[in-house]
From TrEMBL:
GO terms for cellular component: plasma membrane. Belongs to the drug/metabolite transporter (DMT) superfamily. Small multidrug resistance (SMR) (TC 2.A.7.1) family. It comes from Megasphaera paucivorans. This is Quaternary ammonium compound-resistance protein SugE. The keyword Ribosomal protein does not apply. Its main location: membrane. It is a multi-pass membrane protein. The chain crosses the membrane at residues 27-46, 58-78, 84-102. SUPFAM superfamilies: Multidrug resistance efflux transporter EmrE. The keyword Transmembrane helix applies.
Amino acid sequence: MEWIFLVIAGFLEITWAVTLKFTEEFTRFWPSIFTGAAMLGSVFFLDLSLRSLPIGTAYAVWTGIGAAGTAIIGMLWLGEPRAIGRMVCIFLIIAGVIGLKLNL
């Protein structure tokens, strides 16, 4: 169950990172509320995952999911660069997250 909590935390990490762009420095109410709720939810589910997962592994997976997912969304929907080097690096992050899961 802890891995499920960690994946939820990672997806909430992606959510707040992407929606942060739409808060306009926290001057827009609803995007700011949504971003704050996603931040709190992300940390909450990370905490739940720490019941049995080592902090180093959980934190690396959490940030990996957040970094890779946010970069992918940026490329697909926010017009960010799709350079091959960037995609290779994102693949390496994902490979690292999978490696951590398989070696725990």
